[in-house]
Every structure is written in structure tokens, then in C-alpha cells.
Amino acid sequence: MEEDDSYVPSDLTAEERQELENIRRRKQELLADIQRLKDEIAEVANEIENLGSTEESFSFCSFF
Length: 64
Hints:
Elements: H1 14-62
Protein name: Cytohesin 1
Keywords: Coiled coil
Coiled coil: 13-54
């Protein structure tokens, strides 16, 4: 369930509104960091998979 990040309750003080804005900004930063980490993990996993394939090919060729 995703919240509407533009909603601001009318009974908040100016300080509370600022804090809510800060929380929402930080949430977006964290979501961007999570996506960046997911992308890096996928890249490393792909490199490991390719390295394994290269090693298998090398090992197979070394028998001949």
C-alpha cells in the first residue's frame, strides 16, 4: 500500500510540516539508495556468473 506523499494534514504545525517534508525527502533518498544497491548487486552477480563461465571454459581448455 503506497501513501500519497503530497498529503499534509491540516492540523499540523509549521514545525511538524517541515519535519514531514524532511521525512518524505529522506524516504526518497533511501529509496534511491536501495535501487542503486540493487543495481550494483545485480551487476556484481552478473560479473560473478561471467567469471564462473570463463573459469569453466579455461578449465575445460586446459585439459587439451
